[in-house]
Description:
Blueprint: H1 2-17, H2 22-45, E1 57-63, H3 67-86, E2 91-99, E3 105-113, H4 117-121, E4 126-133, E5 142-153, E6 168-173, E7 189-194, E8 199-203, H5 209-240, E9 251-256, E10 262-265, E11 271-272, H6 275-279, H7 284-299
Parallel strand pairs: 4-9
Antiparallel strand pairs: 1-3, 1-5, 2-3, 4-5, 6-7, 7-8, 9-10, 10-11
Helix pairs in contact: 1-2
Amino acid sequence: xxxxxxxxxxxxxxxxxxxxxxxxxxxFGDELKVLEARLEDLEDESLYIGEFDVNNAVLTxxxxxxxxxxxxxxxxxxxxxSRYLQSSDYKFEIEEISQGEEAGxxxxxxxxxxxxxxANFESERGVHRLVRISPFDSNKRRHTSFAGVDVVPLIExxxxxxxxxxxxxxxxYRSSGAGGQxxxxxxxxxxxxxxxxxxxxxxxxxxxxxxxxxxxLELLKTKLLLKKRDDEIKxxxxxxxxxxxxxxxxxxxxxxxxxxxxxxxxxTNIEIGNVQNVLDGExxxxxxxxxxxxxxxxxx
Length: 300
């Protein structure tokens, strides 16, 4: 910060002593652009202040209310995130997909690896609402459907969480997907249910049942650790008499295709008229504005 302040002061001094001829102004303009870029980088760095911001993450999509439209909407969100990830520097793998009976998906999980993966996808946690003319309605009526997105950081140090075998229900099943060479033909997919808490995780990304179980256990331990911390915070809030809105179950973003086109984030009030671009993976503005909104909330 000191170096940037020094450069800014030197720039102002140069402006004061200049004769303001055109060539000098052009030179100063170039210097100003460099300083603006440095200020923007500093602003971006200040957005990452969360405990787990640098961690890898797992993003899970679950179809909500809306029947087959909700299943289709969940698949549209999976495509949106996949398109975004394909154009980014992140490595990702679809860990689990549960197909819908008629169309779309019931659920899917994506493992995202890269610097600040959790921070940049935390913006997506919550309920996503779609309004459109349903392609599954022969009368072409407008339908509203919902899908829930959860994002958790992958925490490496989870030794404090111990899971006993009798606390787990292990279900194995055949992997499902869009087809092709990456779909397993054996019952290697694993779903773990933690009986004391009801938490459920699944993995089908690996070829072997054992590998899928180990990856699912890693995610389950992370969720249990986060739950433990959330429970401790809630206990303190109960003692203090504070009330906080629940994170899960709140509508964070609406995607309206009919009777007009608009994507609006309920937290930041950012609005985008080109819905198709957003559904094609252009979600950077929502991520960045969320991080600014989050920082403001932490500073209040």
